[in-house]
Amino acid sequence: MLQMSKSSKLGLLAVVGFVLAFMYIPLFVVIINSFNAAQLSSWPIQSFSLHWWEFAATYEPIRLALLNSVIVATAAMIVASILGTLVAFALNRYDFFGKSTVNLLVVLPIALPGVVTGVAFSNTYSNFLSPMGIDIGYFGLIVSHATFCIVMVFNNVFARLKRMNPSLEEASMDLGAGLFETFRLVTFPQFRSSFLAGALLAFALSFDEVYVTIFTAPPGVDTLPLWILKEMARPNQASVVNVVATVVILLSLIPVYISQRLARDDDQR
Q1: Whose CA is closest to 107, among 84, 85, 78, 82?
Q2: Beta-carbon contacts of residue 242 (< 8 Å; ≥ 6 apart)
Q3: Count of domains in the chain?
Q4: Which CATH number characterizes residue 68's domain?
Q5: pLDDT in tens, 66-116
Q6: Does the reported pTM lie above 0.90?
C-alpha cells in the first residue's frame, strides 16, 4: 500500500478542499440567496425571509414547469430503462457482426454536446416529420431526453452483467424453470440494484437537461431548468429564480444519492 508523508497528505487535502469549495460555494450562495428578503440578489444579505418560497409555491408557471420536468424525466427514465437494459443484455450475451459499432452508438449521445443533439432533433422534427404531417410535440421532447439517458442505464446494467455468474441461470433452467421465470427469480435480482441506480441517474440527467430542451420543447412548454434560463433575463425575478434553483439542486441530489447507495450495496455483494 502506498504510504504518503504528512506534508503530502496535507497538500492533497488542501487541493481537494479547494476543488470542493470551488464547486459548491456557488451552490450555497444560491441556496442562501433564496431566503433573501430583497427582490434583487445581493451580498451580504441584509434580511432573511420565506416570502419568495411562499410566492414560488403558488406561482402557476413554476408549478407547470415542475410538472413538465417530472413527467418528461419519468417518461425518459422508463424508455431509457427498457432500451438500455435490452441493449446491455444483447451486447453481453450475444456475439454478432457490428457489436462494437452498436456499443459505440449507444454511448455516443452522452459524449455529444447537448446543443448538437438538440439541433439534430429539431431539424428532424421540423424538416422531416412536420412536412409529413406528423406533429410529434411533447413525445418528441421525451424521445430526445431518452436518447442520452439510455447510457446511464446501459453502463450500470452492462457492468453488472459482466460480473454475474451465468451458472445460476443455467441451474435454474436445468431444474425446470422457464426463461421468464428464471429472469424474474434469478437474473433480475442479481442486477436489480444496478438497474435502479441507472434509472435514477437517468431521471436526474433528464430533469436537469436544458440544452436539448431548448430545441425540442413544444411551444409554450417549459421545464424547470428552461424556465430558470428564461427568467435569468429578468433581474427583478432573481430571488424567485434562486428559490427554483434551490429546488432543482435538492431534487437532483435525491436520485443521485440513492443511486450511489444502490451501486455501493451492489459492489458489496
Answers
A1: 84
A2: 30, 31, 33, 34, 36, 41, 52
A3: 1
A4: 1.10.3720.10
A5: 899 999 999 999 999 999 999 999 998 888 888 888 888 888 888 888 888
A6: no
